[in-house]
Amino acid sequence: QVQLVESGGGLVQAGGSLRLSCAASGLTFSSYDMGWYRQAPGLEREFVAAANRSGDSTYYRDSVKGRFTISRDNAKNTVYLQMNSLKLEDTAIYYCNAKRTVAGPRLNFWGQGTQVTVSS
């Protein structure tokens, strides 16, 4: 049974920092690209950041470039999202995503989400 468990969300003032973690189990972690998505109230879920299987290639949406950093520890089956210089518009539920990218079935899993609230 695959589980992705996010943690690290909370309430932070604008300009502050948070570090999200996503611990994966029940899958071969190194076979998956890992990503973070977010969904604000009334809006669609949107891509935030992703890291390839080894973590040596990373991708970001434009609005978080230079502020957020995605990283992964394949020994710990964990992916992180370091969020600095947080803005009000970063407020959302943040979801961890695992996308299998090796040969074989294209599997895709989601975590339950963690709330990030940025206050003024």
Q: Your description of this structure?
A:
The chain has no helices and 11 strands. It is mainly β. The strands form 2 sheets. Strands 2, 4, 5, 6, 9, 10 and 11 form a 7-stranded mixed beta sheet that branches. Strands 1-3-8-7 form a 4-stranded antiparallel beta sheet, with no helix packed on it. It is 0% helix and 53% strand. A hairpin with a 4-residue loop joins strand 7 (68-73) and strand 8 (78-83).
How much is the average pLDDT? Answer: 97
Give the strand content. Answer: over 45%
Task: Write down how many β-strands occur, each being a DSSP E stretch of 2 or more residues.
Answer: 11
Reading the helices and strands in chain order gives EEEEEEEEEEE
- Terminal CA distance reads 40 Å
Helix content: under 10%
Low-confidence stretches: none
Given the structure, what is the number of helices?
Answer: 0
Shape: globular
Q: Report the C-alpha radius of gyration, rounded.
A: 14 Å
- Structural class of the helix and strand makeup? mainly beta
Largest sheet: 7 strands, mixed
